[in-house]
Amino acid sequence: MKCRKCGEKAVINMPQHKLALCKQHYLEWMPEQTERFIQKYHMFGREDRILAAVSGGKDSLSLWDILWRLGYKCDGLYICLGIEGGVNYSAESQRLAEKFAEERGLRLRVYDIASEHGQTISEINARTSRGQNKPCSVCGMVKRQVMNRVAREEGYQVLVTGHNLDDEAAVLFGNTLNWAVGYLARQGPVLEANALGLARKAKPLCRFYEREMTAYALLSGIEYIYDECPYAVGSKSIYYKEILNKMEADRPGLKLTYYLSFLEAKKTGAFIKPADDEKEGMHTCPTCGQPTTAAGECSFCKMMTKIHGA
Ligand code: AMP
Ligand code: FES
Ligand code: ZN
Ligand code: ZN
Q1: Are 136 and 228 in contact, with CB atoms under 8 Å apart?
Q2: Which of 20, 72, 75, 180 could form a disulfide with 67 if both were Cys (CB 3.0 to 4.6 A apart)?
């Protein structure tokens, strides 16, 4: 497989984009694409102060790296949850986030749940009614709350997270299975601030596959925590990701189409408003007189014309 831009040996093949690239061109392609998505979805500008929530994982550190390379003003926020399982998960991810910031001369804010609230996530979880379960739902809620608070209190124009396409497709899958209309209405590359005190949020990596993010982190030499949170094992989101990956293997591009078609449906309003035949572009086919949404002749008539070779 050869790089499409220079003909050298490719290090990554992306069948969903019909594109293979060498290391150098891949490391250029990622920031270019990210910039394109930032513009397309009106995420933020060069003048905005951005706060990147970084977990020490490949996605959020790559995101911070890309925004830094693109010249955006971006600080990091690491939330220390106090999760000790596996490889001493929180301490190790904090070390890597700090190392990353130091190497680039970037500012990292650290918010330590235990020193701010007297208890780690695992302890808080054990004390709440949700405590019989894994701490993930408590943890998710605490993270969202802290990110929002720091972004607002410190005057950042936007909060960015490292959610990639696999994350977004899995969330979308879960939301459609439950037909969670409220969540579906709020899912997207940008979530606007609201009067109730929600900070503006953006997900600049939402169109990149997880494997593209892994490749970027490895090729650009970012040291990140390989392990997932020890509590994530057996989670629904991992289960949905596995199912989507099986479908993706048979139909490259499926995850991207799934997510982009959802965004498109939302944009046109078709997703929220039920279609009204007469107003929403239905009309009568001039050939057969049946109702159709196609422009001009209906698809049946078009097909018939084609097979009869007229
Ligand atoms: P996750 O929910 O673990 O898949 O993480 C999604 C995104 O949330 C990451 O890409 C980060 O931007 C952010 N994030 C997760 N954990 C932390 C953390 N401990 N501190 C700061 N940001 C985090
Ligand atoms: Fe919060 Fe795993 S990161 S429970
Ligand atoms: Zn090349
Ligand atoms: Zn017709």
Answers
A1: no
A2: 72
Strands (E) across the chain are located at: 12-14, 19-21, 49-53, 73-80, 108-112, 158-160, 190-191, 201-202, 283-284, 291-292
Tokens encoding 300: 């049946």
Measured at the CA of 88, the angle between CA 82 and CA 91, to 5 degrees, comes to 55
CA gap 19, 6 in Å, rounded: 12
Distance from the CA of 122 to the center of ligand 2, in angstroms? Answer: 9
Q: Spelled out in words, what is the top-level CATH class assigned to the domain 37-277?
A: alpha beta
Helices 165-177 and 210-219 cross at an angle (nearest 10°) of 160
Distance CA 206, CA 259 (A): 9
pLDDT at 30: 98
pLDDT score for 127? 81
Among all ligands shown, which has an atom nearest to the Cα of 296? 4
Residue 130 has a pLDDT of 54
Q: Give the start-to-end residue ranges of the domains of the chain.
A: 37-277
How high is the pLDDT of residue 272?
62
Tokens of 250: 């048979």
Q: Is the CB of 146 under 6 A from ligand 1?
A: no
Which of 55, 78, 83, 87 is the pocket-test mutation for ligand 2 (most atoms within 8 Å of CB)?
Answer: 83
Per-residue model confidence (pLDDT) at position 190: 98
Q: Which residues of the chain fall below pLDDT 50?
A: none
Task: Write down the pLDDT at residue 274.
Answer: 55
Q: 190-191 and 158-160: which strand pairing?
A: unpaired
pTM of the complete model beyond 0.85: yes
72, 243 Cβ separation under 8 angstroms: no
Burial class for 126, CB neighbours closer than 10 Å (0-12, 13-18, 19+):
middle
In this prediction, residue 93 carries a pLDDT of: 97
Residue bearing the CA closest to ligand 2, atom 3: 229
Q: In terms of C-beta density within 10 A (0-12 exposed, 13-18 middle, 19 or more buried), how is residue 157 classed? A: middle
